Fold this sequence. Notes:
Strand content: 5-15%
Strand order of the largest sheet: 2-1-3
Structural class: alpha/beta
Distance between the termini: 49 Å
CATH architecture of the domain at 25-161: 3-Layer(aba) Sandwich
Helix content: 40-55%
Order of helices and strands: EEEEHHEHHEH
Mean pLDDT: 84
Largest sheet: 3 strands, mixed
Number of strands: 6
Amino acid sequence: xxxxxxxxxxxxxxxxxxxxxxxxxxxxxxxxxxxxxxxxxxxxxxxxxxxxxxxxxxxxxxxxxxxxxxxxxxxxxxxxxxxxxxxxxxxxxxxxxxxxxxxxxxxxxxxxxxxxxxxxxxxxxxxxxxxxxxxxxxxxxxxxxxxxxxxxxxxxxxxxxxxxxxxxxxxxxxxxxxxxxxxxxxxxxxxxxxxxxxxxx
Length: 201
């Protein structure tokens, strides 16, 4: 196989990508969420996610956020530990993954939940999972929805920024090629005129 002779097609980009400048990201809310967060700054739609509870539509394979209440968290690190670790294993492959806990770390440390689980053991499991799966656990009592919106927006902005960089790079190459072609054309034209005994206009 002659790799050097391989011809690549143009990138399969949508012609309407420029319309992104007038749009905002849409958050998918997993349909299995019993008490979903209410978003006020970004639009949201129900859907089925393979990982996490919230994700940007169109990029749900790259970004996902798992939401846990205090009770959910305690259950997830005790009798539902194996299932939770499988979920974290799926999330670890994301470009951006978070576990957002809708309770303060202090309230977990004080045992303010309906369980006999040891608070120190619960938090130790969270810290261990953070390191094992490289997924931050973020504890927030208020404004959880706003924080999810911020993560989704910033992630989508970075993705668009990367696409813009790619476009600028490709356009830069086209401009360089165009300049080179003009130089070659003018050089050949210059030589042709001198061969014929005339000056280049």
